[in-house]
Automatic annotation (TrEMBL):
Organism this protein belongs to: Streptomyces viridochromogenes Tue57
Signal peptide as annotated in the record: 1-26
Domain Squalene cyclase C-terminal, first and last residues per copy: 109-153
UniProt-recorded name of the protein: Putative Secreted protein
Keyword tags: Membrane, Metal-binding, Signal, Transmembrane, Transmembrane helix
Length: 403
């Protein structure tokens, strides 16, 4: 979910401390990875900038589909954690202790919390990660991508999702009296400016509407995350100012902005330098989740239908994180991820890495059933042949006896 940038852009942003909230799902059709893709990891693309992110999303999506992820997939994720509880986007040498050169971040850590909370039985790892997240909370109640970085809507929202996943009320996680909800409300724009959320203030403190940040913040302001997102009650779509805004009001305003931004086409767009605007599939999937969480399943149907018609090719090119995003969008909006525009998203996701244990067990059971069925028919066939042979033998004897 959230901000999608190229791996190179993300790396450059991280160096100057202003990285986007989450890495892009690297396309599986990209050139050969600069590092070996480890066993147990979903996807075949270079995991340098999104390994933990895409792995965690895959586990979350499988859990929501009532599948039990493969042990090796879970082990890969737990092996990425540093001793202090934090996660980096990817560690090529997880056996080596983390040092100052390992760029841990809030997004990888928070999404890993949600992934491990989904599979269960990793309380120690989850607790250490949450403790680390609390230790790097900013004084305004929010989080930046890197520890100490300025709070942004995306990072704050993914941490809210982590807190909710472990049963912690985000309103109770405070720094200098400020909660993550306070940070998000401060990043919301008034209705005169559309009611959106900004990613973070610019150098002059000005807020600018950002659709990606808005999709993230709507879910975060309602205290949910990728693991827990569920359709809410039908709500008003119009923007409404309040003084001060409550988190729920800010979320409603953000959803109203998304509804307008989706426009007549039913999808969000991304601007590429020197090129015409392109459909933003991932952001549209995030918007579906946000609209469903804030306004109910009906509020998300138009962009959901657009995704069903247009997003499967994108997911195939982009890999496991994209499939997982579509699974989460479909599930939140009341669609069937196993029949999404004629595509079984769950099956496609599972095929990018280790098969979930439940799915593997079902496949083994089916094979055993097929084998047993074949065996039964083989025995029946043998007995039929034997029976026919005996019948011919008896018939010959009878004919001989009448001579």
């Amino acid at each position: 979910m959230y901000v999608r940038r190229s791996a190179a852009a993300l790396a450059a942003a991280a160096v100057i401390g202003t990285a986007a909230a989450t890495p892009a799902a690297a396309a599986d059709s990209s050139p050969s990875p600069s590092v070996a893709v480890p066993a147990g990891l979903y996807g075949t693309a270079d995991p340098t900038y999104d390994g933990v992110w895409r792995q965690s999303l895959a586990l979350i999506a499988q859990h929501r589909m009532e599948l039990e992820p493969a042990a090796e997939a879970i082990d890969w994720l737990t092996g990425q954690q540093c001793a202090n509880g934090a996660f980096a986007a990817f560690r090529a040498a997880p056996a080596k202790a983390c040092d100052a050169k390992v760029m841990v971040d809030t997004n990888s850590t928070a999404i890993a919390v949600q992934g491990l909370a989904a599979v269960g039985e990793h309380d120690t790892a989850v607790e250490k990660a949450v403790t680390w997240l609390k230790s790097v909370q900013n004084k305004d109640g929010g989080w930046g991508y890197t520890p100490g970085g300025a709070s942004d809507a995306n990072s704050t929202s993914v941490v809210v999702g982590a807190l909710d996943a472990v049963g912690t009320d985000p309103a109770e996680v405070r720094k200098d009296g400020e909660s993550p909800y306070d940070a998000l409300v401060k990043l919301s724009l008034p209705c005169a400016d559309g009611g959106a959320f900004a990613y973070q203030p610019d150098k002059k403190g000005k807020l600018s509407a950002n659709a990606d940040a808005t999709a993230a913040a709507v879910v975060g302001a309602l205290g949910q995350g990728m693991l827990t997102a569920k359709a809410g009650d039908k709500a008003e779509a119009a923007c409404a100012d309040g003084s001060p805004l409550t988190p729920r009001q800010a979320a409603a305003n953000g959803a109203a902005y998304l509804g307008e931004a989706l426009g007549k086409d039913g999808h969000l767009k991304s601007a590429l330098a020197g090129a015409e605007d392109q459909p933003d599939y991932g952001n549209t999937a995030d918007a579906v989740v946000a609209l469903a969480v804030q306004g109910g399943e009906s509020a998300a149907q138009r962009p959901l239908r657009w995704l069903e018609k247009n997003a499967v090719t994108w997911a195939k090119q982009s890999g496991p994180a994209a499939y997982a995003q579509l699974v989460l969008a479909a599930d939140a909006a009341g669609a069937d991820p196993r029949d999404f525009g004629g595509t079984n998203l769950v099956e496609q996701l599972n095929a990018t890495g280790p098969a979930p244990r439940k799915a593997a067990d079902q496949a083994a059971a089916k094979q055993e059933e097929d084998d047993n069925s074949f065996g039964a028919w083989w025995y029946i066939g043998v007995f039929l042949v034997v029976g026919i042979g005996i019948g011919f033998l008896l018939s010959g004897r009878n004919k001989g006896g009448r001579r």
